[in-house]
Amino acid sequence: MRNLKLILLLTTLFLNGILSAQPWQLAGDRIKTKWAEQVNPQNPLPEYPRPILARGDWQNLNGLWEYAIAAKGSGIPTSFDGKILVPFPIESSLSGVQKKVGGANELWYQRTFKIPAGWKNKKVLLNFGAVDWKADIWINDIKVGGHQGGYTAFSFDITPFLGKESQKLTVRVWDPSDKGFQPRGKQVDDPHGIWYTSVTGIWQTVWLEAVNDNYFTAVKTIPDIDGKTLTVAALPFEKKTGDLVEVKVLAAGKVVGTGKAASGEEALIAISDLKLWSPESPFLYDMEISLLRNGKVLDLVKSYAGMRKISTKKDVAGIVRLQLNNHDYFQFGPLDQGWWPDGLYTAPSDEALCFDIKKTKDFGFNMIRKHVKVEPARWYYHCDKEGILVWQDMPSGGESPQWQQRSFFNGKELERTQESEENYRSEWKSIIDQHISNPCIVTWVPFNEAWGQFKTPEIAGWIKLYDPSRLVNPASGGNFYPVGDMLDIHSYPAPDLALFDGRRACVLGEYGGIGLATENHLWVKDKNWGYVQYKTSDEATAAFIELAEKLKTLIPRGFSAAVYTQTTDVEMEINGLMTYDRKVIKLDETRISKVNKEVCNSLK
In terms of pTM, does the model score above 0.85? Predict the structure, then answer.
């Protein structure tokens, strides 16, 4: 009888929603992608997160963690508010929480894990893909370090702090969103128009790796197609005399080049039968990189490389053109903001992450401008593999000075605080370091439309010296200085060559913004926003083609690249070629693909 009463009580609690057989479910009632329903809360985003430097011994820590929101400055919580699905930000539906944190509070995470038995006598590294914005980490109640920056990976050697059995991992995050100076892109506390929901906390994969006492921390790969060589700097944790780095370059499983270097030095590999990387033929060489000591392998990582060259050169008419592999090449692609209705900053799956890239190529484009956001490492891997050029923005943040977009700047430049300036420089350098080996990235964009723009000649000059293998677009949309490799004009909705520079490539960094509200696929029913709005797909398609035809007339006059706004709708902004949930292609794909390919081929 007692057991029957207990069963009846539990049944009543379950039916009333007080108890649930499912510890996680999608939060909220807004639109979602098809991939959201396929997410496995026991194993979300299971793929190895860093293909450019891959190891076999690793353990994914994504999944259900405890979370708590507490007042800023509070101690480690003794109790938690519930479960959160890592690595989806807490404001997202996929987190299972969908709560706002705010700058007055801190977000706490906690979970336990066990070290695999086979990792005995190994060092254990704890890796975070990205946490927005300021994070502190504890292992078994011992603080092991912190990190500031919302877009870059960081790691800790947690070996000395591990216990015998279960390990406790605690994370504290603080993020002031648009109330701070930090790079944040389009995140705001009050979303509206072109400004979107803020993102707080862990938003990329968390994982463990087993390594020996000395191991590689990064790989820097720079191709030289003119010299038919590949330079590889595999950076060790500890530069020790006598240690040796050996690099094997493979094509279709066959070794086509090798190089050796002392630990900490660059290996130079000659590749005689060169296969170039391009959007039309995205060939990637595989690499095996070993760290050796007296013939013993201390670390072995797998990587890859693409042999390509990006440069500029004047054509016969005296117009500076962008070149790919020493040939004039018109770069044309969408503004891609990388937002998801269910995961916000975090794609619901690896398939979803790759979908936008593949669809961009289906649309006939050859380039993507990744707009004021940095993606997980696997996004750039997919771009490398699928074959598409990438202009990488620095996420904007801070204040804005006077904006002059139709002339060279003659006003007073922004003065950032020392803390803000140092944070910008540090995070931008980390972003470049993290993605310097991805062949898809051909242009660095430090500033957009004057937002946070400061010391432009100095910043542009530093980037060019730090990475001479790529182009620098110093100020997309202004403010303009005679520095870098490009003059980047924004013009909505129609293309307009409003300013010309005979010493640099002239590019159209943003245009278009054709708005089309698609019923049943909207973030909100009203207050939707577009630069120009149409009522039907046929009207929007015709407008797109009309703008593309005008763009074609401006290419002989000076434009060498163009960026159309944009890949998808994002929240209330309905300028996308696709709806926010990726369920509807809003324009006629066949017709826009045809004209886009004509634009891409205009200089061939």
Answer: yes
